[in-house]
Amino acid sequence: MPNQRGLPSKCFITLFIFLMPLLYLHAQELDILLKGGHLIDAKNSIDGPMDVGIRDGKIAEVAKNISTERAKKIINVTGLYVTPGLLDMHVHVFMGNEPGAYIANGATSVMPDGYTFRAGVTTVVDAGSSGWRNFPLFKEQTIDKSKTRILALLNIVGSGMRSRFEEQDVSDMNPVMTAHSIKKLYPDILVGIKAAHYWGDFTQVDLAVEAGKKADVPVMVDFGEHYPPNSIEALFMEHLRPGDIFTHTYSHGPTQRETIVDEEGKLKPFIIKAQQRGIVFDMGHGGGAFTWQQAIPAHQQGFKADVVSTDLHTQSMNAGMKDLSNVLSKFMAMGVSLPDAISRATWAPAQVIGKPDLGHLSVGAEADVAVFNLREGDFGFLDVRRLKIQGSRKLETELTIRAGKVVWDLNGLAAEDFKK
Question: Could you tell me the domains of the chain?
Answer without folding.
Answer: 85-359 (3.20.20.140)
